UniProtKB/TrEMBL annotation:
This protein's name: Phosphate-specific transport system accessory protein PhoU
Subcellular localization, as worded in the UniProt entry: Cytoplasm
Organism ancestry: Bacteria, Pseudomonadati, Pseudomonadota, Betaproteobacteria, Nitrosomonadales
A cellular component annotation (GO) from this entry: cytoplasm
Gene3D superfamilies reported for this sequence: Phosphate transport system protein phou homolog 2, domain 2 (1.20.58.220)
Summary of the function given for this chain in its UniProt record: Plays a role in the regulation of phosphate uptake.
Pfam families: PhoU
Amino acid sequence: MQFEHTYKQYDAELESVRAKVLQMGGLVEQQIVNALDALVNANSNLAESVMANDSRVNDLEIQIDEDCSHIIARRQPAAGDLRMIMMMVKTITDLERIGDEATKIARVAQKISESDRMYTPRFNEIKSMVGLVREMLRTALDAFARLDVTKTVEVARQDEQVDEQFRAAMRQLITFMLEDPRTISMSLEVLFVAKAIERIGDHAKNIAEYVVYMVKGKDVRHISLEEMERETLQS
């Protein structure tokens, strides 16, 4: 009975940490949404809110990191449980960095809202990118919650789409700057935001790859999409 009680307590500890990771993921996704809204609508108050909430993201990372360290010290997990803890530690690092990228976007939004300028940036080029990275993050977190690798390859494919959209936006912005030097400042701001969004996609892909490692015990970083698909389909 004592062993059964200890096991249930251990399981509850792991589940509590997983719930915090998902809470952090939900907060980070909202940060992305609010940062884009602040940018498109030049909403300084919302931009300030995003920057202030970054501390909540950081606090959650610290809490989860400490929880994982305590579990390792007390429980000495092995095999699947150890992989689960390693995956959660890596996942919160990527979530924290996504939060940082959202904060960068919010800073641009605040700068634009407070400036008096002739040329205001248009962000049509990156709205599609934002939609894609949000979907990537949501899919990766869903895969984490369910420990389901079936859609992780889809996240990797979408990351390639985001990269291509970033390159297309960069080419377009370079054209604008060459044709009219007065748009250089504006174009650089859009490019800075586009790069932040592209990095969010990279971090979402990382999270999906950690899920494959957790479930399959296979490290799928730095391999082709075809190889990743084969790994996820193997029973």
